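Section 5.1 Outputs to date
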Amino acid sequence: MSKVWLITGAGRGMGVDIAQAALAAGHKVVATGRNTDKVSQALGKSVNLFVVKLDVAPASPHISISGYGSRIALAIARLSGTTESFG
């Protein structure tokens, strides 16, 4: 049974390494980063990959992680094949 991984900072460094390893093992990945193009470029395309823009820096001009909760939950549900409704 595959697992769903939520990986922050998936556009560089260890985030890329962890995401690639999870995908290679057949798991599903919600990969987040400030720049979704960079995340997508680093990880490529996969039916097991869902990329979400997320910036958790304290002084970020973007919405905080709490503002992305339902979007991330929906991505996890989509990847895991569950049918729960998030709103």
